[in-house]
């Protein structure tokens, strides 16, 4: 484990994912990058409040502060796209060997309607994926 990508949106599952990434980075002397994907869903209405770029920039700043408090620095990434496929692409393009995502604990109906980012990434990424619960 050399390069860890952690998906972060500021929610409690993402905080658990970030904590897991920090613990593993300390243990394996790995580098951390944090990604917060600004969702883009063409044709979808109404707009999801999490689609705002300012929300994602604030989440990345929060992650930077948490990392600094724990003696870590990280590359911060804020791409735009479908969250699940964008995390997968960022992991592949960046050569990450580990991806850590949080699980929001969606029910069956919500997973069907919204899709589960953690499930998609775990099923499709070419890296080891850890789902923090």
Account of the protein in words:
The chain has 133 residues and is an alpha/beta fold. It has a single domain (3-132), classed as HUPs (Rossmann fold), CATH 3.40.50.620. Helix content is 45%, strand content 20%. The protein has five helices and seven strands. It has helices at 12-28, 53-69, 83-93, 108-114, 117-124; strands at residues 3-7, 31-35, 38-39, 75-77, 80-81, 98-102, 128-132. It has a five-stranded parallel β-sheet with strand order 4-2-1-6-7, sandwiched between helices. The chain is globular, with a radius of gyration of 14 Å. It starts with a strand and ends with a strand.
Write the topology of this structure.
Blueprint: E1 3-7, H1 12-28, E2 31-35, E3 38-39, H2 53-69, E4 75-77, E5 80-81, H3 83-93, E6 98-102, H4 108-114, H5 117-124, E7 128-132
Parallel strand pairs: 1-2, 1-6, 2-4, 3-5, 6-7
What keywords describe this structure?
20% strand, 5 helices, alpha/beta, 133 residues, 5-stranded parallel beta sheet, single chain, two-stranded parallel sheet, Rossmann fold
